[in-house]
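Need residues for this backbone.
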């Protein structure tokens, strides 16, 4: 199956979620939550992630995770990851209990595509403060794609991870996982970069982004992905491809907000007051831009 067909297949099978001018949605991806060891890229930004999600929970947002939320190439057991980052999972479970949480799988957590995986591993988690098992994501449907469909009209936004156009990380993902788990992860300790990773290889990033842009233009489809870890926020009329970045940037996390008919690219980072006090702050990097400006640019 060609790269383009894999993405089109994901669109056809996507879970449909309606939205309108009053919707509040935040998109994040590539958290790569790990086991708390030196190889856990999420650990450095876990406080930023918790602060950001707390803000979005309090302000009535729906949280959609666009894949690679958990690092299941380097780590075999998601229960260890849940235990190490129980505070983040507890907060995500609060979103889920209110019907405001959706999860898409990427290449690094592609094992989640099997419904039996989430049923076995994501139903409950152990809470230290309660000294008991608590509900996590009972009955959670983890999909390859989500279609945000505007309630009034034909406009829609396709959400997926984006690895479908990356042959090595989709068709040959088992080989890629083997190399990451047994070759590149040990070598990273000595400073060797993983050449299979789209996030650490500039040329691979460019190739993948060109394929995603080509697909979205050809299919006249607004597309929001992760995978490359590089934020993309085009001007209205120039492209329909967006990328929310990642939660493992050095010193910050990025995401995309859809809020009251507008779309923005935002960053969460540790900031400093004039009195030199540290706090976690939100900064708008691009936007807000009316979604209608992008929809108008789509050829009919």
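Answer:
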């Amino acid at each position: 199956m060609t790269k383009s067909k894999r993405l089109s297949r994901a669109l056809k099978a996507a879970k449909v979620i309606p939205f309108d001018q009053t919707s509040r949605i935040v998109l994040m991806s590539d958290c790569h939550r790990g086991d708390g060891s030196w190889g856990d890229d999420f650990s450095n930004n876990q406080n930023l992630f918790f602060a950001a999600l707390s803000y979005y929970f309090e302000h009535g947002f729906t949280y959609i995770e666009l894949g690679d939320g958990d690092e299941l190439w380097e780590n075999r057991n998601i229960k260890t990851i849940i235990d190490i980052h129980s505070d983040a999972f507890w907060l995500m479970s609060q979103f889920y209990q209110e019907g405001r949480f959706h999860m898409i799988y990427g290449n690094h957590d592609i094992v989640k595509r099997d419904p039996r995986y989430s049923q076995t591993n994501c139903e409950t988690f152990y809470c230290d403060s309660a000294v008991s098992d608590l509900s996590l994501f009972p009955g959670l449907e983890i999909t390859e794609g989500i279609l945000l469909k505007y309630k009034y009209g034909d406009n829609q936004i396709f959400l997926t991870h984006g690895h479908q156009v990356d042959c090595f990380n989709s068709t040959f993902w088992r080989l890629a996982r083997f190399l990451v788990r047994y070759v590149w992860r040990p070598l990273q300790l000595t400073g060797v970069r993983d050449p299979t990773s789209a996030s650490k290889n500039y040329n691979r990033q460019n190739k993948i982004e060109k394929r995603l842009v080509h697909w979205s233009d050809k299919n006249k489809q607004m597309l929001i992905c992760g995978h490359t870890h590089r934020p993309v926020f085009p001007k209205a009329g120039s492209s329909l491809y967006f990328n929310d970045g990642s939660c493992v940037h050095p010193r910050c996390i990025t995401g995309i907000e859809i809020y009251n008919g507008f779309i923005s690219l935002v960053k969460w980072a540790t900031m400093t007051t004039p009195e030199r006090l540290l706090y976690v702050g939100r900064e708008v990097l691009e936007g807000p831009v009316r979604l209608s400006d992008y929809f108008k640019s789509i050829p009919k």
